[in-house]
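Hi U.,

Before I forget, here's the chain from the pilot set. I'm dumping it here mostly so it's searchable later in email.
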Amino acid sequence: MTHSTADIVICGAGMAGAAAAYHLAVRHRINNIVLVDERPPLTLTSDKGTEAYRNWFPGPGDTMVRLMNRSIDLLEELAEESNNYFQLNRRGYAFFTANPDLIPQWQEQAAALSALGAGPVRQHPGPMPYVPTQAEGFDRSLTGADLVADPALIRREFPFLTQNVAALLHVRRCGWMSNTRLGGWLLERARGSGVRVVRDKVVGVTVQGGRVESVQLGSGDSISTGAFVIAAGPYLKNVAALLGLDIPVVNELHAKVTFKDVRGVARPDLPFMIWNDPVRLPWSDDERGKWASDPQRRWLLDEFPAGVHFRPRGDDLLMLWTYDVQTQAPVWPPHFEPHYAEVVLRGLSAMVPGFSAYFGQGQAAVVDGGYYCKTRENRPLIGPLPVPGAYVIGALSGYGVMASQAAGELLAAHLTGRPLPDYAPMFLLERYDDPQYQALLAQWDARSGQL
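Structure:
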């Protein structure tokens, strides 16, 4: 049992903790930082996502667009500094529909997001040509969105799509990267600036004189510190309870499918492909009769919500569909619905009919995933907590990687007393004490900003 000291202790070595450590140690030169996690870094939730990013976030207000624009600015800085070690691209998010009645709605939504700072909207056919996806790198001129209402043009660019496609909304300041490479690069720089990574579990926080005094670890070791940062992902609520705090967050389990496209149905240079229409799954008559007679599986015959999506990743495809989300306590390893991969494959066939060649092969896919830790309005918590010396960087939902750099920068500004951006108050826990914010919450969609 040992006792040590640290200027700052960070609980959690996922992407949020790595970004916090990087900004504090490398950009603010605080070198006596301890990063504590009982698991290897980046292995709880940070390596389980789609690794994607976007600045396409709805209101109220421009808060989330500004946070993401800042985070993408920082990601691009890091990509240039590292010779794009973490393979950042700007392929975009491509939303497709077979319903031409959606086009006016898309026009309205795109105009609203453009006004929030997401970039200009270009309509096609129109005075400017549609620019196809660039497979590698990040062309900074690709901003805003392209709304394509010409099915022939869409089919020329994406000939494998359904003949029924009517429109495309291609959002451009979006793409993906390698989470593990980014997180590893951040941690390497942080370690080089003095950060110590300790494989242990935070089991207690001592508060003396009304403020944080020390952190206790499962091994029996303790660390004296005046600053304790909760970056615990889905365990945010559990760790905050060590301080006597009840943080208003929940966890949702989200799965993804990794599938080998051995038939080459989808090109490897595609953007993030999203089908924006509800879907009824294409079962055979025998399968339909089987599900209809099984009360536990009858839901497979229901209409599924819009939003099934996929993207290429090397020789694999990553596929997702958020059709059944329930809050739950985090358990590790998580359990996934056994039909999930088959459901996603069949849902994607509405957009890409060629995926029908894989019907019945869902069991060949790899299903994994992690928890979205979310506030009621699906916006993060970043900044000081009611116990002096305690801070949080969390509730980053399904956008933790894309928001990580602006979140880490903002947390570091709180800890070092640097000037804060004017959106900082919108991410404080104390926002829930504001009657005006509470009134706003009563009308808020909890899925705001979530694919």
